Amino acid sequence: MSRKIDALVAEYVMGLENVRWENYCMKDQLFYGGPWIDDYGCDGYQGTSKVPGREVPFYSRDISAAWEVVEKIKGEQLILEWSDIGGDDVDGPHWDCAIFPIDEKSITVEQGGWCSGEHETAPMAIAIAALKAKGVDVKALEEE
């Protein structure tokens, strides 16, 4: 599920262009941009292989990539708050991320309200809330 979420965050939240799956180094990987660029590639030698663009960050798994989402949301005049809503002994989601519009001009959150994402990890909670703020229906992906 997480790479599907990453693809949606890349396109709808971060505004990356040409987000797509490519078979590269014998496996499907998620890329954006293009055209093919020099990189270390499968064989490990700079410039001997071409990569189909840049790899989409792991927004839903890596806190540093998730922080890029936080900065993007803040730049759109939205308030993002998150909290640890449980400990290791709590069943279900542990993190809650909520996004609120600052004023009427900044409303991208559906119907002018607020939205939230809950998950056992902070990066996924941030990704889910950001997608909901952009009006992306993530309910089916959350159930996978």
Question: What can you tell me about this protein's structure?
Answer:
The chain has 144 residues and is of the alpha+beta class. The protein has a domain at 61-142: Bacillus phage protein, CATH 3.30.2120.10. The chain is 28% helix and 26% strand. It contains four helices and eight strands, in the order αβββββαβββαα. The protein has helices at 2-13, 63-75, 122-133, 139-142; strands at 20-24, 27-32, 37-39, 49-51, 54-55, 78-84, 95-101, 115-119. The chain has a three-stranded antiparallel sheet, covered by helices on one side. Strands 6-7-8 form a three-stranded antiparallel sheet. Strands 3-4 form a two-stranded antiparallel sheet. A hairpin with a 2-residue loop joins strand 1 (20-24) and strand 2. Helix 1 packs across helix 3 and helix 2 (63-75) packs parallel to helix 3 (122-133). The radius of gyration is 17 Å and the shape is globular. It starts with a helix and ends with a helix.
